[in-house]
Amino acid sequence: MRLILASASPRRLDLLARIGVTPDAVLPADIDESVPGGELPRDHALRLASEKAAAVAEREPEALVLAADTVVAVGRRILPKVEDEATLRTCMALLSGRRHRVMTGVALAAPGQKLRTRVVETTIAMKRLSPEEIDYYAGHGEWRGKAGGYALQGYGEVYVRHIGGSYSNVVGLPLAETRHLLKAAGYPLA
C-alpha cells in the first residue's frame, strides 16, 4: 500500500525514517491554516491535521495519507509560525520564564476506513531569557517557519529547562502514536 506524507516538513520525513518509514510520495496539502476565533489549540492542531489528510486523500484515494500539524500554545493563545524577527521577539518574550504546550495533531486516512487521529501534548518550561539571549537567537535564523519561533532540535534547546512528554512531538511528529496509527491501518512495520 502506498504511503503519502501530506507535509512539506523535512523534520517529519527525518522522524519517519527513525521508525523505518519512507513515504512513497510527499504531497503537501494546500489548506487554510488560519485560526478561527475561539478555537482552542488542541482542536486547532487536530482540525488542521484532519483537513490536510482529507485534502490529499481526495486526490489519492487508494493510498494511506499521513498528515500532522504542530501548535505551540501559551494558555489558550496559539503562537504563529514565525516568519519575521519582530514576531520572533514577541514569541520569545512571551515564552521567556514560562511553561507552554506543544500539541501535534496526527491524522491518517486509509482507503475504506474512517480517519484515524491522535493529539499529543508536551509541556515545556523555558528559562527566563535575557535581551542578549533573544538577540543571539534572532541571529541564528533557525526559527524561521517554526511554530512559536524556536527549534527544540536546534540551538533553541539551550533555553529549555524542562520537557514533559514526547520529544519527537515537539520536533513535529509524535513517533509512538504515529507508528500505532500506521500499524492499525495495516501498514507493514516491524
DSSP strand content: 15-25%
| Low-pLDDT segments | none
Any idea what the radius of gyration is?
17 Å
The level of helicity is: 25-40%
User: What is the average per-residue confidence, as pLDDT, rounded to a whole number?
Assistant: 95
Largest sheet: 7 strands, mixed
Provide the succession of SSEs.
EHEHEEHEEHEHH
N- and C-termini, Cα separation: 16 Å
Number of strands: 7
Classification by helices and strands: alpha/beta
Identify the overall geometry: elongated
Number of helices: 6
Explain what the structure shows.
The chain is an alpha/beta fold. Helices cover 34% and strands 24% of the residues. Strands 1, 2, 3, 4, 5, 6 and 7 form a seven-stranded mixed β-sheet that branches. It starts with a strand and ends in a 6-residue tail after the last helix. The mean pLDDT is 95. The record marks 11, 70, 153 as: Important for substrate specificity. It is found in: Cytoplasm. The active site is at 69 (proton acceptor).
